[in-house]
């Protein structure tokens, strides 16, 4: 459902009951958490930085860069909130030389929101709001199986094709960074 420009999802409640100390413990049912996806604001920049830092797998950019993403690139970035707290984000931009391709810079989901397809929903939200975009590109290291899986599942969910080509070789990086092949998802319109 869309409310005031935010996509709202009801997520399934998790079983948080434990009977390790009391075999007769009552099962406590919690209301489903409310997941919302929206454009970021300057107030979200610090939270985006924290989610990236805590991911353990992303290259952490300066806090200033996340403030710029949340303001200058708000039309091409999204944040996911769970009961009002930022629990994920996707950052990216439309390529200046190709208005049909969106480049995904980073996508990160906080541990407490994983397993709810948040990364895919973030990608959907951006792409669905960019009608001229027909493809997505990103770079991902060969050993980042989690990110590669996100993009493969997302491409499959949209009936799109995913291909891999040369991106940035290790020697392009001045700091010993691994190579980042380019993943391209074509045919993202449903």
TrEMBL record:
<dbReference type="InterPro" id="IPR016181">
    <property type="entry name" value="Acyl_CoA_acyltransferase"/>
</dbReference>
<comment type="similarity">
    <text>Belongs to the acetyltransferase family. EctA subfamily.</text>
</comment>
<dbReference type="GO" id="GO:0019491">
    <property type="term" value="P:ectoine biosynthetic process"/>
</dbReference>
<keyword id="KW-0808">Transferase</keyword>
<dbReference type="InterPro" id="IPR000182">
    <property type="entry name" value="GNAT_dom"/>
</dbReference>
<feature type="compositionally biased region" description="Basic and acidic residues">
    <location>
        <begin position="12"/>
        <end position="29"/>
    </location>
</feature>
<dbReference type="InterPro" id="IPR012772">
    <property type="entry name" value="Ectoine_EctA"/>
</dbReference>
<feature type="region of interest" description="Disordered">
    <location>
        <begin position="1"/>
        <end position="29"/>
    </location>
</feature>
<comment type="pathway">
    <text>Amine and polyamine biosynthesis; ectoine biosynthesis; L-ectoine from L-aspartate 4-semialdehyde: step 2/3.</text>
</comment>
<keyword id="KW-0012">Acyltransferase</keyword>
<dbReference type="GO" id="GO:0033816">
    <property type="term" value="F:diaminobutyrate acetyltransferase activity"/>
</dbReference>
<feature type="domain" description="N-acetyltransferase">
    <location>
        <begin position="35"/>
        <end position="180"/>
    </location>
</feature>
<protein>
    <recommendedName>
        <fullName>L-2,4-diaminobutyric acid acetyltransferase</fullName>
        <ecNumber>2.3.1.178</ecNumber>
    </recommendedName>
</protein>
<dbReference type="Pfam" id="PF00583">
    <property type="entry name" value="Acetyltransf_1"/>
</dbReference>
């Amino acid at each position: 459902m869309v409310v005031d420009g935010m996509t709202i999802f009801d997520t399934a409640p998790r079983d948080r009951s434990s009977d390790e100390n009391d075999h007769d413990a009552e099962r406590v049912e919690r209301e489903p958490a409310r997941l919302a996806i929206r454009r970021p604001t300057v107030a979200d920049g610090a939270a985006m930085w924290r989610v990236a830092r805590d991911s353990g797998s992303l290259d952490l950019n300066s806090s200033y860069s996340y403030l710029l993403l949340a303001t200058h690139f708000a039309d091409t970035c999204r944040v996911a909130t769970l009961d009002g707290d930022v629990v994920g984000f996707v950052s990216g931009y439309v390529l200046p030389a190709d208005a049909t391709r969106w480049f995904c810079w980073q996508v990160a989901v906080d541990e407490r929101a994983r397993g709810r397809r948040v990364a895919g929903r973030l990608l959907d939200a951006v792409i669905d709001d960019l009608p001229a975009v027909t493809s997505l590109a990103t770079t991902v290291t060969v050993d980042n199986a989690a990110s590669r899986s996100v993009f493969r599942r997302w491409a499959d969910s949209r009936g799109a094709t995913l291909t891999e080509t040369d991106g940035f070789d290790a020697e392009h990086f001045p700091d010993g960074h691994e190579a980042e092949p380019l993943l391209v998802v074509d045919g993202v319109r449903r």
